Amino acid sequence: MTQDRPRRSALYLPASNAKAIAKARTLPCDVVILDLEDAVAPEMKAEARAAAVAAVREGGFGQREVAIRANGIDTEWGAADLAAIAGSGADAVLVPKVSSPADIDRYQAALADAPASMQLWAMIETCAAMARLDAIAARAADTRLSLWIMGTNDLAKEMRARLTPERTPFLPFLSMAVAAARAHGVAVLDGVCNEFRDLAVFRAEAEQGLLFGFDGKSLIHPDQLAPTNEVFSPSAEELAWAQAVIAAFALPENAGKGAIRVEGKMAELLHLDQARRLIAVAERIGGNG
């Protein structure tokens, strides 16, 4: 996994909805998540599992990453989900309600027979997880863990907190989650916004997620794709600055310097690293078309 891979938009789709999956192959999302958990009724779980595996094997998703969200390992469907997903060819398995490092280890063990390339993605959505964010992220060093997705709806339910457009009760947790993920090289996506009719409200939440440092946002409706991709794509101004920083540090007179002046602003080596990553992300976005 590369940290410069675009994950601006991760769209959830019920794995039992064949029409939605077919449409996803044409949508401008960076990630497709075929859901076996919240979006599927209990009596449809086995059918949805088979449909998800069949969809992945059929392919046609292009450059999009494809993940399958399993039911929890302690549910009656979890073990069968994980066994099926391990051999599906999906890029990742997304697992719900991870609350401790031990949870990551259990999923790691359950995926022992999966290809080495299969990633483990975790939903961060429980009160218990909030006190263990650093310890959970640290398991990325020895496991398949590579990405988190915030589950703000479930967290709000557990906390008995109100999920308003400002998301005030959750702001500390969003910030802590990003910091813990960054400390251990884990990519991190913002939670879903339940508003898909009023795109101004949705866009404000997406911009809030960008402000907090998320790599992208998880989505529940295709109408949310365009604003999300726009918000989480580098702007023309950002790219121009990044190119200027890279060019300036490449000048012979700046060789070996840790800080230089670029267009009237101070730029340090950390800004050079940021500039290179920004350009790499933009190139990947362009390549994804």
Structural notes for this entry:
Strand 2 (31-35), helix 2 (45-58) and strand 3 (65-69) form a beta-alpha-beta unit. The protein has helices spanning 18-24, 45-58, 78-86, 101-110, 127-130, 133-138, 152-159, 171-183, 199-212, 225-231, 236-250, 269-288, and strands at residues 9-14, 31-35, 65-69, 92-95, 119-124, 145-150, 187-190, 216-219, 259-262, 265-268. 43% of the residues are buried. With 289 residues, the protein is an alpha/beta fold. The chain has twelve helices and ten strands. An eight-stranded parallel β-barrel has the order 1-2-3-4-5-6-7-8, surrounded by seven helices.
Q: Give Rg in angstroms.
A: 20 Å
Proportion of β residues? 15-25%
Oligomer: single chain
Biggest sheet details: 8 strands, parallel, barrel
- How many strands? 10
Mean pLDDT: 94
Parts with pLDDT < 50 across at least 5 consecutive residues: none
Shape: globular
* Class per helix and strand makeup: alpha/beta
Relative helix content:
40-55%
Order of helices and strands: EHEHEHEHEHHEHHEHEHHEEH
Number of helices: 12
| Major sheet strand order | 1-2-3-4-5-6-7-8
